[in-house]
Structure formats: C-alpha cells, structure tokens
C-alpha cells in the first residue's frame, strides 16, 4: 500500500509557510504513520514530526528511525501520547520559554517543545510555577523576560496567563489544558479565563493544543527574523538635507 491510498501529503507546506505538516497520530495505524514519515523524510522538504503518537506507534517509529527524538521522554511519561521528531531543521538562535502552571501540564508542554525542536528553535521548560505559590513564578520573571516568545501552559483556572501578561512585554501564547477538578470542565474554564484575561494582547489556542501554540510562536519568530534580515535603505544626500 502506498501513502496515496490513504493520504495526500502536502510536501510544499514548509517552504510555503515555514511550518511543517505534522503527522497526526490518532486515527492512523502504526503502518500508516511510519509510511507517511518515510515518504516525508525522503522528500527532504522540511522537518518531519508525528504528534500524539501512542506507545505502539512510538515503538514502530523508533524501529524505523533509531535517531528520532520523543517528547516527552519515555522515561518520564511512558504511556503519554508523544511527539516524535524524525528530521529537524538546523538550530536557530531564537529561544522560546515554555512555562507550565503544574507538573501535569508537562505532556502538553512537551508537544510544543517537540514542535519547536523540529523547526530548529530552542526552548527552556519552566515547570510548576502556578499562582498557588506565586513566589515560584516571580523568582523566574527575569529569566522569562529574555525569551523571544513565551508559551504558557495551564489548567485549573489558568490564572498564570493574566499574571504573566501583566509582568512581561514578550509575546504570550496561552494553552489551556484539560487538567483540574470539578468546575475545570476539561479545560473549558481555563480557556474562557484566558480569553477573558484583563492582560491585553495575550493569544490563546484551543485546549491541550501544544502543537498550535508552537506553530504560533514559530510564525512570530519567522516574521521577526525576516525583518531583521531585510537590507536597510541608505538615505540619499537629499534626504539627509531635508
């Protein structure tokens, strides 16, 4: 069976928009996932990554691509749906901060981390600094201010997003997670709180969408990088005189 029997790969996506076509794991067989990864890797048009791969799919991918990187690592979260990076772009100088309110948010944070890694963008994970112990977050503010973009990952009521939005000037992309008790409603409470944040200019993606948050960060970084590389116009003598 060829991939054309079940998928139409968009090989031009990365050259066209600067973002890879991820292979979304759920709903695909292990064989389909591996076949798609092999085809995309052979084309060499950009990063190759699989999102939300289950344990069986991860094992199949590692057999086919022994050098692949898995986020989160199997030693940390052996049963979690994982992002598998098969081919990554060269490293870039930009860096994204991924800030989680709790340890339980790390699986979603790692989806963002894997996506950034595939595109050659560095990241630092700052974990478990939610507002229930706000001193933890405040002790990291100077570090957080140094990132090009900040991704905030939080469940419960998602309050860390508004707090950070009032303390730093960096672009912030908030990811609500389905973590929390009772009225958390599977991440809906965090998402609504983030959307209603009184801190202006915060962007919000859907529940548990670490991949989408990373793609948003990459778009910002790509635009800033392109602006910095544009040649500066040299003023003419007449312009100087005016």
UniProtKB/TrEMBL annotation:
Q: Name one GO biological process term.
A: 'de novo' IMP biosynthetic process
Q: What InterPro entries does the annotation carry?
A: P2CMN_synthase_LarB (IPR039476), PurE_dom (IPR000031)
Span of domain PurE: 94-234
Superkingdom in the source lineage: Bacteria
Pfam families per UniProt: AIRC (PF00731)
What GO MF annotations does this protein's record show? hydrolase activity
Name the record gives this protein: AIR carboxylase
Which SUPFAM superfamilies does UniProt cross-reference here?
N5-CAIR mutase (phosphoribosylaminoimidazole carboxylase, PurE)
């Amino acid at each position: 069976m060829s991939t054309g029997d079940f998928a139409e790969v968009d090989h031009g996506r990365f050259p066209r928009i600067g973002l890879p076509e991820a292979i979304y794991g759920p709903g695909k067989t292990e064989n389909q996932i591996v076949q798609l990864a092999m085809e995309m890797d052979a084309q060499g048009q950009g990063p190759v990554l699989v999102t939300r791969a289950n344990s069986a799919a991860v094992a199949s991918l590692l057999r086919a691509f022994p050098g692949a990187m898995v986020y989160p690592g199997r030693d940390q979260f052996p049963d979690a749906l994982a992002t598998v990076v098969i081919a990554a772009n060269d490293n870039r100088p930009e860096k994204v901060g991924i800030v989680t309110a709790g340890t339980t948010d790390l699986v979603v944070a790692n989806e963002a981390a894997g996506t950034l890694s595939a595109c050659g963008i560095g990241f630092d994970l700052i974990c478990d600094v939610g507002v229930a112990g706000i001193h933890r977050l405040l002790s990291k503010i100077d570090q957080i201010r140094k990132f090009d973009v900040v991704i905030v990952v939080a469940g419960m009521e998602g309050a860390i997003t508004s707090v950070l939005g009032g303390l730093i000037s960096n672009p912030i992309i908030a990811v609500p997670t389905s973590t929390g008790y009772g009225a958390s409603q599977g991440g809906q409470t965090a998402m609504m709180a983030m959307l209603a944040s009184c801190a202006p200019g915060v962007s919000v993606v859907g529940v548990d969408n670490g991949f989408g948050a990373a793609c948003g960060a990459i778009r910002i970084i790509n635009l800033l990088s392109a602006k910095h590389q544009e040649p500066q116009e040299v003023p003419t003598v007449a312009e100087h005189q005016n």
